[in-house]
Amino acid sequence: MKLHNIQGYIQQIYLVEYSDKLLLLDGASRADVGVILRFIRNELGRPITDLKTVVVTHMHPDHAGAAHRLRSITGCNVVASHSDTAWYSGLDGLLMHLADVMLALWMAMRMGKAKKNLWYSKVLKPDLMLTDEQTIPNFDDWRVIETPGHTDRDISVYNAKESIVYVADLMVEVKKRLVAPFPVFYPNQYRKSVERIYDLNVDTLLLAHKGQANFTYEAKTHLLNTAPRRPVTHWRVVKIKLKKLTRSIFLRH
């Protein structure tokens, strides 16, 4: 097994190579489709049909945006967590989807990246939905670990034999410290997810942003001490800003 770390549009892309197949640990963004296919063809010298499975850890633009397109081009399977409803469902879901795409574009701008089309379907249609501890078909050394908190359906991808876990956006690195991501919809579940990953005691912990991290006890303690204890979501941030704006207007008058 070889693990390749590819620089994506706004996140790291992790491609696992075997002699007869390839596994993508997350669904990347729409802007990454060409990057992934060129890497397979040019760097690995392999046909793109060797990509057999794409995991989608959650529905944000840089984790699900390339999945459907890659399936249509390569014939790969798309694997996601089991859920009875779409993450971006209803009017709130539509607005949140728009906000998340705009947030991804804003992040790209801050990184100095050229503007690209990140639009993707707000409804994922996976070939297979897995539950906690289930192995990924045809890749039996990898299994999914349910790690909700960032959203209600986040999963991490774990290889016990190689002592590797990819945690997607469960944590991010800011100023060389691990902190909670934005948003955190379910803070209690988030804390349990962090503890669960720590208890795996892996040699290699991979983040979607910034690559490999050193997840020491001190890093975990800082992460949990600074993580929100109430939901921090798009709507709560908007409400707080509106309250501050309203208060400032009244104070002026």
UniProtKB/TrEMBL annotation:
Belongs to the metallo-beta-lactamase superfamily. Class-B beta-lactamase family. It comes from Vibrio gelatinilyticus. It comes from the Bacteria. Residues 10-209 form the Metallo-beta-lactamase domain. InterPro entries: Metallo-B-lactamas, NDM-1-like, RibonucZ/Hydroxyglut_hydro. SUPFAM superfamilies: Metallo-hydrolase/oxidoreductase. GO terms for biological process: antibiotic catabolic process. This is MBL fold metallo-hydrolase.
